[in-house]
Amino acid sequence: MVFLDMKKALIFGAGKIGQGFIGDLLHDNGYEITFADVSDKVVEEIDKNNSYNLFLTNHNYEEKIIDNVSALSLIKNQEEIIELVTEVDIITTSVLKANLTGVAPVLAKGLKKRLEKGRNKVIVMACENAILATDTLVNLMIDTRIVTMNELDKIGTYPNTGVDRFVFGGVYNGKEGTAVSDSHELAIERQKLDDLDSEPIKGAKYVDNLEAVLKRKIYLVNCWLAITSYIGYVHGYKMVNDALRDQDIQTIVKKAVHESAAGLEKKFNFSHEEMSDYINEMIIKRYDDYNQTGIEDPIARVARQPIRKLSSDDRIMGPAYIASEYNLPNNYLLYGAAHAFKYDNADDEEAVKMQNYIQKNGIENTIENISGLEIGSDMFNIVLECYNNI
Ligand SMILES: NC(=O)C1=CN([C@@H]2O[C@H](COP(=O)(O)OP(=O)(O)OC[C@H]3O[C@@H](n4cnc5c(N)ncnc54)[C@H](O)[C@@H]3O)[C@@H](O)[C@H]2O)C=CC1
Ligand SMILES: O=P(O)(O)OC[C@H]1O[C@](O)(CO)[C@@H](O)[C@@H]1O
Predict the structure, then answer these.
(1) φ, ψ for residue 341 (rounded to 5)?
(2) Which ligand is nearest to the CA of 295?
(3) In the chain, where are the structural domains located?
(4) Which one of 136, 138, 160, 276 has the largest count of C-beta atoms within 10 Å of its C-beta?
(5) Is the beta carbon of 129 within 6 A of some atom in ligand 2?
(6) Atom of ligand 2 nearest to the CA of 129
(7) CATH code, residues 7-208
(8) Residue in 223, 289, 301, 311 to alter for ligand 2 test, most ligand atoms within 8 A of Cβ
(9) Which of 52, 92, 96 to mutate to test the pocket of ligand 1 (most atoms within 8 A of CB)?
(10) DSSP letters of 94-138?
(11) C-alpha dihedral sign at 118, 121, 122, 128
(12) Are 7-208 and 211-389 the same fold in CATH?
């Protein structure tokens, strides 16, 4: 299908965020979108009607049609994807951080070809829950040796982003699909844009302090839900909703969030008021998002990949390290981490890997290895003691 005179976007990853947030936003901005995904099922589903529906959680699951879309398989249609990289106006990813290695070679080949064709610069952004994921993607492209940094600089701009929207999978109005909340924020690193005043995506927020904004989001919102999920899992809950309704769990989780906030205030000079407003808007009010009929968010989704989530810059240990840097308390964050080490979901590849590692090498080595805590250090001792008491 050809859509004349429309701006073009290529989105790697047609999952919940790809379709439910980035696809939605770019569609609202008048882009014709091509998704590139490794899943045949996902590609076929989009290509069936060249459109998909989103269900609006805050509007009684009213359906929003996202049209002018198509999809390609990263496995079967690589040449077409490479060609598309030479043509589009914007390229994004929403594939999960670990899968950026799969995107890097194809994207690098496409950008190299675009440069050889003498095309204009393109904006490339990784939209993942990870710290400075676009920088990671750029480094992965350089590692392929297909392109150099110098060549990448000539053909593209690579802003980091912060991605915040609740996007759920499930059955809505009797149909399987993706449900999205109204509340959302796509933060884009302004300094990386060639024209600092340009706003290539309307409805996004252009920020000068992306690292601070991104860490505030991941170390508060994602921290809140991750710790809720790991403690909830140990308590036998299957759904995030249920763990969010458990007041005993939430008393602890809120203390962890406040530990995180205190460290962020110090590190990034957020005022206390600014931080409280953020917590009210992006956490407290969002308990209601989870309380709506029809929302069933599995703990397995929010707790997925515990090794990533326990790494030193991610949502639990990241803020714990910041708190310790300023001699602030971090006991509740470390209590959350201890519960994450207990996550033994047999359907989660990383959880299985982590539990096998614990069995083989002991919890002490596992804590050191995954979270970077030195054996015998104060933070290490707290995690270990909590773990042994669970
Ligand atoms: N779902 C949410 O509420 C939020 C998710 N995020 C972040 O957005 C990113 C995507 O998450 P979701 O959409 O929830 O995950 P998802 O699992 O729903 O979708 C990921 C998609 O990427 C595809 N994929 C995997 N490897 C690929 C590759 N090499 N090339 C192309 N496609 C590939 C998968 O087949 C899948 O369709 C993650 O980094 C996540 O942390 C950020 C904020 C909120
Ligand atoms: O996508 P991740 O990083 O695995 O985190 C799990 C999910 O839980 C959330 O924190 C809340 O839905 C999302 O931002 C995120 O997709």
Answers:
(1) -65, -15
(2) 2
(3) 7-208, 211-389
(4) 160
(5) yes
(6) 3
(7) 3.40.50.720
(8) 301
(9) 96
(10) -S-GGGHHHHHHHHHHHHHHHHHTTPPPEEEEE-SSSTTHHHHHH
(11) positive
(12) no
Q: Does domain 211-389 have CATH number 1.10.1040.10?
A: yes
Residue whose token pair is 């194809």: 106
Question: What ligand 1 atom has the least distance to the C-alpha of 167?
Answer: 3
pTM for this predicted structure: 0.94
Give the closest ligand to the alpha carbon of residue 282. 2
User: Which bound ligand lies closest to the C-alpha atom of 40?
Assistant: 1
Smallest Cα–Cα separation from 35: which of 89, 73, 78, 1?
73
**Using CA positions, which residue lies closest to atom 16 of ligand 2?**
302
Q: What is the ipTM of this complex?
A: 0.97
Of 144, 147, 342, which Cα lies nearest the Cα of 233? 342
Residue whose CA lies nearest to ligand 1 atom number 10: 94
Residue 86, C-beta contacts closer than 8 angstroms, at least 6 positions apart: 110, 113, 114, 117, 119
Q: Which atom of ligand 1 is nearest to the CA of 166?
A: 3
Tens of pLDDT, residue by residue, the chain (390 residues): 445 578 999 999 999 999 999 999 999 999 999 999 999 999 999 999 999 999 999 999 999 999 999 999 999 999 999 999 999 999 999 999 999 999 999 999 999 999 999 999 999 999 999 999 999 999 999 999 999 999 999 999 999 999 999 999 989 989 989 999 998 999 999 999 999 998 999 999 999 999 999 999 999 999 999 999 999 999 999 999 999 999 999 999 999 999 999 999 999 999 999 999 999 999 999 998 888 888 889 999 999 999 999 999 999 999 999 999 999 999 999 999 999 999 999 999 999 999 999 999 999 999 999 999 999 999 999 999 999 999
